[in-house]
Task: structure prediction
Amino acid sequence: MADTILVTGGTGYIGGELIDQALAAGKTVHTTVRNLAKSEPRLRARWPAAGKRLKVFWAELESDDGWEDACEGCDGVAHVASPFPLTVPDHADELVIPARDGALRALENAYEAGAKRFVLTSSAAAIAYGHPPGKSLFTEADWTVLENPDVQPYHRSKTVAEKACRDWVSAHAPDMEFCSINPVVVVGPVASDDLSTSVALVQRLLTGKIPALPDVGVGIVDVRDVARAHLLALDAPAQTVKGGRFAVSDRFMWMSEIAEVIRERTPAYAGKVPSRRLPSFMVRLLAPFMADLKQVKTELGRHRDVSGRHATDVLGLEYIPAAEAIEATVRSLVDRGIVKF
Ligand code: NAP
Result:
């Protein structure tokens, strides 16, 4: 049982929810941010009762500074921070290097500090991409195929980072209780105005920025379940998690189904949610000229269902239904005034 944990990336969507649940569970939480002056007051305002149970440290994925202090005294680490931009960078290394080197910095410093348990926030991006067309069901046994040049920089960054951590543990710290949590697209209640890329998808549907629905889909999981999976993995007996990979997903949904859920569950906010389909030939035609559609093109018609079953069987994680998660996203975006009506 980890009583004092480090959650890296406390300003983030998943990091914030994890801190919330860890504090509620009575843990002392260290967290890292990369702008202490701006972020520490915001985190203290979000958890005013935490007092000394919340310690905020400066650390940046691309620098060695700060990690030793952040890890000191922690018996478990959840390494959540990683770049997750809305746009595709010019070169994959812009994401791969901070993702991989930052994860290794967190891991090595955790080991030096004596933290035995290390939970890496990886992704379904490290599981389900670059495979031959026609493969639609994925489990923890699958790895994104890095040799495929069509694999997007973000997917590449998560795969490289997870592999690098696993290799480092095997070579230098085989006694370490390392595991990864591999979520699909994370939605659910939003507690900050800085939106994660995954929530921006729902925001764009609500605000009419997606005028028609391409024939693409994603796995959906609620942020509360993703945080709970991390906590369960931090506290489970060593033999249950050591070396494990836990995909977390409620279910796969086509964009048209997500739009339908918004219309049915929150009709007052669905005025700009498209019902029109964007024909796939049009996506292919326009993709060379529009960066957004370039990403969509490779996903057309692709059913990528990453099973979340193993996390239920081993960690006991029960999923909030995807439709409920989407509804909670919409309501919190409206309640926080991020999407205005
Ligand atoms: P998010 O809200 O954008 O949070 C990302 C966090 O990483 C932020 O705290 C950010 O700090 C920090 N970060 C990014 N680059 C950094 C750097 N160079 N140095 C230090 N900190 C850095 O995204 P999220 O959705 O919570 O994602 C968190 C983790 O979950 C990531 O590892 C992501 O790959 C993974 N994941 C997310 C999803 C999803 O659908 N949301 C799905 C699967 C996996 P700043 O606030 O300073 O930018």
Q: What stands out?
A: The pocket of NAP is lined by residues 9, 11-15, 34, 60-62, 80-84, 98, 121, 123, 158, 183, 185-186, 196, 198 (CB under 6 Å).
